[in-house]
Specification:
Length: 485
């Protein structure tokens, strides 16, 4: 069905069905506001998602009622009400499984310096819709006691939605000048919806890219995470780079666009990384995995800094995993990512090449134990990242790599059956070490513990007598070395 009019009719019909499914929330809420003499409209992303068949239980509304009046009405209806956004005209509530946000019509003004508006409450729906970020988010549906009624679309957001285009209600320069975060939100919608930027929107972002510096790194990180977790993350990353936004907020990504030498001795690192990201996404079995996706995209960011042209005409990237892990830590810390996320992504980048020393199963059991221990809780993600990192077009080589990794996973499974690989610890704890060696608490106990852990990794599980004998021998040799002649 390619006719736009027919598609419009079909999508509106599907949206009506989706909204009827929410009648247990919409009808009572509509009746509540209508009886109080107020208008109520479902608005923004909720209408867009209803049309796209992806309506969630988070519902956004707008109304002519002022914030205090909204709170009064919701207090008598909802299970829980919170007013943390009331100064901006928003009151939130939970009713059963649904989360609703009701906001007074807004007619804000901006100073083009900060992104914080001077909040002004409006008196009509059209004025509220025209101030919104994109036309696809500027549609509304009137809600009454009978549920969803009229579809309101003064800015022709449906046409943009049908065309898969992200455009602003007013001139994009005005919109992005008011709130530069909208530039990054545009990229995020590319990633979430698979839409493309309207030419004038794309051009405006490119011309105004420095304005993103007005936005706090915390808000930037939130949008980046929504982008990378989008269903169309590859297109989102590409838009981030093409608009120039990536140069301002994560320059390591466009920095991977290395010039390919005339002999094509190495792949384009940027395109390779997008392929790895897509293959990692394909390996996910549940919700989007933020850590895995960032690790897949950034696993090779150390290559530009480590590229060397060899005498034989080849190209090498020695230790790019070490450099890349440091770069990941620096960038994510600057964006104020949680420490756990930063550590996990950096560790995956650091470990992603380790497997390539496995060869044809030449690793000892000790090496396999170290692989598992170093990965820790990240082992499943590391499995996926390593498999995703195989992008060769040589089918025989690709099959060989996958079979080799299958063999490594089998060996890990066998060792896990024989010993607790998930918790490789020394066979003696700190108290036992102090008692055996007659040591007080201090750094020497830690050194002995680390020796036993290394021994455990090399030999596998030992009984207590073996562990004690090994520790005594190590301590005797260490003590003898420390005695001056």
């Amino acid at each position: 069905m390619n006719d736009p009019a027919q598609r419009r009719t079909r999508l509106l019909a599907a949206a009506a069905v989706a909204l009827r499914a929410e009648s247990d929330v919409l009808n009572p809420l509509g009746e509540l506001f209508t009886a109080a003499g107020h208008e109520l409209y479902l608005v923004g992303g909720s209408v867009r998602d209803a049309v796209l068949g992806r309506l969630s239980e988070d519902l956004d509304f707008t109304t002519d009622a002022r914030p205090e009046r909204i709170k009064e009405l919701l207090d008598g209806w909802a299970d829980t009400v919170w007013d943390t956004g009331i100064e901006y005209g928003t009151v939130s509530a939970r009713k059963g499984r649904a989360i609703v946000e009701v906001t007074t019509y807004r007619a804000d003004t901006y100073d083009q310096v900060s992104r914080n508006p001077t909040v002004t409450f409006g008196d009509n729906l059209d004025g509220d819709l025209v101030r919104r970020d994109f036309t696809i988010n500027a549609m509304a549906v009137r809600i009454t006691a009978d549920g969803a009624q009229d579809f309101i679309d003064p800015l022709d957001g449906m046409t943009a939605l049908l065309a898969g285009v992200i455009d602003t209600p007013a001139a994009p320069e005005q919109s992005f000048g008011d709130d530069p975060l909208r530039m990054l939100r545009a990229v995020r919608f590319v990633a979430q919806l698979g839409f493309r930027l309207a030419p004038r929107t794309f051009d405006a972002i490119g011309a105004m890219v420095e304005e993103i510096d007005r936005i706090t790194v915390e808000r930037i990180a939130v949008e980046l995470d929504k982008m990378i977790c989008g269903e169309h993350a590859i297109e989102g990353v590409d838009a981030l780079v093409a608009t120039g936004l990536a140069d301002r907020i994560m320059p390591e990504i466009p920095g991977m666009k290395l010039t390919i030498d005339e002999h094509h001795q190495h792949k384009d690192v940027y395109q390779h990384s997008l392929t790895v990201l897509q293959q990692a996404i394909d390996l996910e079995t549940g919700d989007p995995d933020l850590v895995l996706r960032w690790a897949a995209l950034l696993h090779d960011i150390g290559k530009p800094a480590t590229r060397r042209h060899e005498p034989n005409g080849g190209v090498s990237f020695h230790h790019h995993e070490v450099v890349g892990a440091k770069m990941v830590r620096k960038r994510l810390r600057e964006l104020k990512y949680p420490k756990a996320v930063t550590d996990d992504v950096a560790q995956l980048v650091f470990l992603h090449l380790r497997f390539h020393g496995y060869g044809d199963g030449r690793w000892t059991d000790s090496a396999v134990r170290r692989y598992v221990t170093d990965a820790g809780d990240l082992l499943d993600r590391l499995h996926k990242l390593v498999r995703a990192d195989c992008t060769t077009r040589n089918k025989r080589r690709a099959r060989k790599l996958q079979e080799t990794y299958d063999d490594l996973e089998r060996r890990i499974a066998v060792l896990k059956e024989a010993e607790d690989l998930d918790r490789v610890r020394p066979d003696l704890d700190g108290n036992a070490i102090m008692q055996l060696l007659g040591l007080p608490p201090g750094p020497q106990v830690g050194q002995a513990w680390r020796y036993l852990k290394e021994l455990r990794l090399d030999r596998g599980p030992m009984d207590r007598d073996e562990a004690e004998a090994a520790l005594k021998q190590w301590w005797a040799e260490r003590t003898a070395e420390a005695v001056p002649e």
